Recover the amino acids of this structure.
């Protein structure tokens, strides 16, 4: 079986690449997918539907267009990794975690110890909490090959 892994959250570091490379080195039966990670492209996803004078409506349109991708990928994944970084608040990642939990999809949170408290509900529904991409790779190795 090839597992589909949805990578959600923070887009400003190379954690996705670290996980994919680590899993590829181990030849794990995984495919990876994620939301659009180009911030500007994501923000502009709804622009094709017409210009807006207020930021709220531009964001509203773009979030709906982006939602087509994320909802489908979340629904089809076997497992997800939800990354919360230190620089920005990833509200979209928390929303993804809620969708994953509601669908009964297993997910692993990936974040530093200093944000355990604000993520307590997100972590309580997760199947694991990792602090490094290497820990995620080890979890994925175990669940796909043990």
């Amino acid at each position: 079986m090839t597992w589909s892994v949805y990578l959600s959250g923070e887009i400003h570091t190379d954690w996705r690449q670290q996980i994919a490379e680590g899993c590829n080195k181990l030849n794990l039966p995984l495919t990876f997918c994620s939301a659009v990670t180009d911030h500007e492209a994501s923000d502009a996803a709804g622009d094709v539907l017409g210009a807006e004078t207020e930021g709220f409506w531009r964001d509203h349109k773009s979030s709906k267009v982006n939602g087509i991708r994320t909802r489908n990928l979340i629904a089809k994944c076997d497992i997800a990794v939800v990354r919360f970084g230190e620089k920005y608040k990833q509200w979209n990642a928390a929303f993804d975690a809620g969708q994953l939990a509601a669908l009964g999809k297993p997910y692993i949170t990936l974040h530093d110890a200093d944000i355990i408290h604000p993520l307590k509900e997100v972590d309580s529904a997760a199947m694991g909490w990792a602090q490094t991409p290497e820990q995620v790779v080890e979890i994925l190795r175990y669940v796909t090959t043990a």
Remarks:
- The chain has a mean pLDDT of 96.
- The radius of gyration is 16 Å.
- The chain is about 50% helix and 15% strand.
